[in-house]
């Protein structure tokens, strides 16, 4: 019997070699996530696999999965080099087998229309390919509504994301089991880069990249440096392999910002990433006014989208996956609660984050200086054109900030506020004060998503009881000194204020404030208009301020301001 042992071992080795495969030898090349309304293909969900290698692959025991589950094992099937196979649920086999080779699996994942994370796993548990598709990969507003498949352009670049996918160009809505209608070669791909970083515990840091990295390269400790600490472990995380989890020798301190340097890392195509740095740290619990609403677009241009900009005015690191956006319904109750992020993403002190439904559309309409600071969610809460309420909540459901905005907060001389954002003037002042909001400047494109507001002004109270800044202002909508602020400091609360503006001839032209209750400090803004909302001419104006309380105390102040360039 021993003389037969060697040939048998050779046979087993040959069989094993035949079935052996490398990661990305079999890839997902087409996805039908939303088959209705029917264009020309059956009303069934399915995916397509392709063997991109030079040897056959036996799919026996392979499984398909997403974020919510894992299918049953695939049956015996030899996928030949360059060949395709359709994978679907059992009741779809009859309809889909007319288009090509078809495999049925039990518990076929329900494919989400907007976004889902799909992966295929070999019989030994190795993740062979994963795709985190999104509805904007269709690059077509009509086709993303259903009936059309997502097709991969270049199967030789399986690690690419949005750049390598598009809606099918085939008249039937897809090409199951055959070469894709958009099949081609990608000549330019985004450079591998760091997206962001977050922590899980005080000695574990995760770095997220914009594309999959080579798993061996990602697990090499010498590619990472953290000042003041040692990195003792690195692991490239499946199924997308676009995250590396680092283990640290020393624990991190809460609310401290750390910088990690990454150098020499390669992506799955072997391209070396240039040296880059990323901030990280431990997030803190968010309380009222840590994070504020800083800019609002509630009446977008035609085919545009609303956006809400948030600003971190605290000294904390805030995890946006623990922040929710909402509104209030007609009864005043908090409603339409939406998560800002499904994954941990940090907003650091002094940073901005813009939440919208469509990042590409935002960039078409406004200058977006920091695209990485744009968060896309499937649907914002409803923010009506004439007025509504924006509510920020923390993970306990407590209100962090709230703004009941009105279209009347726009500059009165604007005839059409379509596409014009409302900007917060000072993030440290009252969220609900109409005086703390102003239309974005025309010179800034009527919106400043992801960066400093065009109308930003940190109100300086000065040493006196009343100060006016700037002393010369020009309300022409250019974002530079469009308004002047009248700031006050009082010895105690409980005063009532009246402010009247006179022209150089002593004639009253604007009753700016009437019987307003005050705190110990605050401010009002003047935009250069009179009581009839007409622009006043160039000249010097007297600001007459009167404060009194019920105890008979009274303080009167006069300040001058120059209106230099009216509308």
Plain-language structure description:
The chain is built from four helices and 39 strands. It has 567 residues and is mostly beta strands. The chain has a six-stranded mixed beta sheet, with no helix packed on it.
Shape: elongated
The rounded Rg comes to 30 Å
What is the number of helices?
4
Q: What is the straight-line distance between the termini?
A: 103 Å
List the keywords.
single chain; mainly beta; six-stranded mixed beta sheet; 4 helices; disordered N terminus
Short account of what is shown:
This protein is mostly beta strands.
Q: How are the SSEs ordered, and which strands pair?
A:
Elements: H1 5-19, E1 26-32, E2 46-51, E3 57-58, E4 63-66, E5 69-70, E6 78-79, E7 84-88, H2 93-96, E8 102-104, E9 115-121, E10 127-134, E11 150-152, E12 165-167, E13 194-199, E14 204-209, H3 215-218, E15 224-226, E16 231-237, E17 243-248, E18 258-262, E19 276-280, E20 291-297, E21 307-312, E22 318-319, E23 324-328, E24 334-339, E25 346-347, E26 352-356, H4 359-365, E27 374-376, E28 387-393, E29 399-406, E30 422-424, E31 437-439, E32 466-469, E33 472-473, E34 484-489, E35 496-502, E36 508-517, E37 521-526, E38 539-548, E39 554-563
Parallel strand pairs: 7-8, 26-27, 33-39
Antiparallel strand pairs: 1-2, 1-11, 2-7, 3-6, 4-5, 4-9, 9-10, 11-12, 13-14, 14-17, 15-18, 16-17, 18-19, 20-21, 20-30, 21-26, 22-25, 23-24, 23-28, 28-29, 30-31, 32-34, 34-37, 35-36, 35-38, 38-39
């Amino acid at each position: 019997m021993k003389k037969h042992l060697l040939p048998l071992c050779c046979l087993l080795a040959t069989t094993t070699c035949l079935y052996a495969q490398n990661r990305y030898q079999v890839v997902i090349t087409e996805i039908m996530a939303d088959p209705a309304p029917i264009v020309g293909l059956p009303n069934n969900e399915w995916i397509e696999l392709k063997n991109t290698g030079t040897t056959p692959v036996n799919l026996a025991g392979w499984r398909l999965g997403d974020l919510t589950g894992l299918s049953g094992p695939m049956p015996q099937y030899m996928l030949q080099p360059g060949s395709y196979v359709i994978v679907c649920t059992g009741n779809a086999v009859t309809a889909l087998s007319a288009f090509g080779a078809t495999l049925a699996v039990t518990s076929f994942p329900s494919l989400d229309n907007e976004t889902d994370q799909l992966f295929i796993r070999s019989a030994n548990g190795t993740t062979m390919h994963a795709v985190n598709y999104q509805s904007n990969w269709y690059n077509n507003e009509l086709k993303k509504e259903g009936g059309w498949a997502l097709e991969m352009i270049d199967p030789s670049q399986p690690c690419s994301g949005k750049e390598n996918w598009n809606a099918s160009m085939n008249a039937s809505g897809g090409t199951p089991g055959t070469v894709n209608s958009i099949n081609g070669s990608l000549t330019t791909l985004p450079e591998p880069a760091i997206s962001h970083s977050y922590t899980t515990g005080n000695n574990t840091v995760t770095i997220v990249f914009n594309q999959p990295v080579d798993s061996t390269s990602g697990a090499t400790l010498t590619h990472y440096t953290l000042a003041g600490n040692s990195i003792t472990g690195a692991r490239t995380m499946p199924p997308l392999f676009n995250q590396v989890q680092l283990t640290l020798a020393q624990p991190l301190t809460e609310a401290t910002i750390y910088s990690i340097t990454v150098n020499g890392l390669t992506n799955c195509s072997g391209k070396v990433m240039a040296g880059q740095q990323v901030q990280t740290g431990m997030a803190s619990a968010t309380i009222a006014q840590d994070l504020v609403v800083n800019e609002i677009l509630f009446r977008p241009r035609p085919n545009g989208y609303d956006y809400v900009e948030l600003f971190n005015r605290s000294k904390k690191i805030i995890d946006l996956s623990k922040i929710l956006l909402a509104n209030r319904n007609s009864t005043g109750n908090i409603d339409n609660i939406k998560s800002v992020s499904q994954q941990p993403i940090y907003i650091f002190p002094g940073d901005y984050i813009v939440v919208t439904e469509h990042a590409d559309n935002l960039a078409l309409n406004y200058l977006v200086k920091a695209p990485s600071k744009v968060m896309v969610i499937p649907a914002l809460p409803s923010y009506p054109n004439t007025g509504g309420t924006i509510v920020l909540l923390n993970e306990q459901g407590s209100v962090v900030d709230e703004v009941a905005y009105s279209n009347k907060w726009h500059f009165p001389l604007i005839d059409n506020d379509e596409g014009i954002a409302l900007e917060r003037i000072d993030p440290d002042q009252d969220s609900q004060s109409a005086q703390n909001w102003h239309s974005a400047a025309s010179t800034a494109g009527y919106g400043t998503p992801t960066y400093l507001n065009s109308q930003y002004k940190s109100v300086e109270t000065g040493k006196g009881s009343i100060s006016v800044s700037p002393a010369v202002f020009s309300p022409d909508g250019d974002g530079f000194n469009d308004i002047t602020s009248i700031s006050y400091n009082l010895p105690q609360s409980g005063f009532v204020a009246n402010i009247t503006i006179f022209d150089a001839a002593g004639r009253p032209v604007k009753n700016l404030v009437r019987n307003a209750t005050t705190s110990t400090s605050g401010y009002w803004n003047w935009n250069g208009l009179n009581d009839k909302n007409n622009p006043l001419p160039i000249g010097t104006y007297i600001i007459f301020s009167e404060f009194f309380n019920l105890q008979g105390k009274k303080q009167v102040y006069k300040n001058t301001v120059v209106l230099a360039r009216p509308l």
